[in-house]
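Researcher: Let's try something more involved. This one mixes different molecule types, so please make sure each is placed in the same coordinate frame as the others.
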Amino acid sequence: MFDEPFATGRSFIHRIDPRHRIVIAVVYSFVVALTDRFAPLTGALIVSLALAALARLRPAAVWRRLKVVFGFLALIWIVLPLTTGTPFLARIGPMGISTAGVLLAARISLKTTAILIEFTALVATMPLATLGHALGQIKMPEKLVYLVLMTYRYIHLLENEYQRTVRAIRLRGFLPGTNMHTYKTYAYLIGMLFVRSVARAERIEWAMRCRGFRGRFYHLVDFVPTPATWIFSAMMGIIIFWIAILEWGPHLW
Amino acid sequence: MTKPIIQLENISFAFPGRQPILNGLDLTLNWGDRAGLIAPNGSGKTTLFHLVMGLIKPTSGIIRIFGKRILAEKDFRVVRRRIGLLFQDSDDQLFSPTVLDDVAFGPLNLGKNKEEAIAIAEETLTSLNLTDIRNRITFKLSGGEKRLVALATVLAMKPDALLLDEPVTGLDRDTRHRIESILRELDISYIMISHNMDFLSQLTTRIFSLENGKITVDDTAALHPHFHLHSHGTHPHEHK
Ligand SMILES: Nc1ncnc2c1ncn2[C@@H]1O[C@H](COP(=O)(O)OP(=O)(O)OP(=O)(O)O)[C@@H](O)[C@H]1O
Ligand SMILES: [Mg+2]
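Model: All components are placed in one shared frame. Result:
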């Protein structure tokens, strides 16, 4: 249900300081999101793909993630060209395919894909725990870090409780069908899931208090930026700058 | 040498809308005591430990720890630094991403700096033979590994006393021996819940029971090491 397919690895990207990766990912996403011209957008997509290759992401796994978003993009490709208005690129019966609509859909698709792949390559390549600690070290609010780290724990908790309950139900020969018994069982399943998770969450909180927790997390790992990190960050800085120039600089193309 | 660590006087407790589980209970644990608690399922043993740690509040009665009456949450904070509770279900106890994070969590909260906390955690993991799994994700460990890591998180706080809620239930013999020898070597007082009489008799000097919400000294279960012969004798088993 919940795993981190990209988190472990020994690629070039995996060895870059997580703090640098987070900052670069955020800045890069901002710039790409604000970009409208096709030259910088295409460039961004190529850069994102290159990052994915550098991180040695398995194409099949990346595709599985992209598919979800592509469903949404498909919808945009249907709606926007038909609703944006004249001038038309072509006509189908009474309806026109708007040139502006097609361009807009293309822009959104490029941006979304580029940002998603880049985030997968830079941020999904660290375990969530590392993300939490890295956020803590770039002085993000403690509440946010706490949220990230505890969400991680509680998602696992929910999944565990879910699987335990499902296993118990299966082991006793339950076969889902369209009948009252099935509905009642599912209702119990969901009810139990919530009740048990809440009870367990309370006991985890107890355990934390037993060990002197006062609402503050400490970070054990010291991230040390390697020379590769600085080179990578400088390169990405130049690339981001270059995208910005293509977008907002003097019209050369 | 009979300075008390834990003194419970006339403690009563009931979950909302239910019959009292503890009913005028008295219990004392002195320095150097190694006490066992053996009683049927559902008799309130776990509840008793949670009361001592201040996780739930008694309906009436007095709790004294290290001779001082404990009332407010702030008093319990001090108690929790000096008394370690090993939860019956280790899944409740572990929450940090990695084993090392989890073991270092307590020392960090006690004000140790990062290097000291890591050193304490490493040392504790080494003493429990757990160095191999120090970077594993805590909630993806096996049941026995979880129990050992949970014990490590408690020991890393260097408590004066331990409340051990069924520390060896469900563990294989080697792991059980490991815990046994660790507890034997430690200079620490504890109360240990277990359903395993053999294990208790190896590790405790007194055995209590819990009946009708009160502590009784279990005379019928007078301690005597015994050897016996029957099939499966080499496998771990329990005696009632
Ligand atoms: N949160 C709760 N709400 C209501 N009743 C509870 C709750 N927790 C425990 N109980 C009840 O209180 C009684 C004592 O529970 P407790 O967990 O202390 O037993 P125990 O002696 O530790 O048993 P075991 O040997 O099975 O661990 C049980 O009857 C149990 O059903
Ligand atoms: Mg219990």
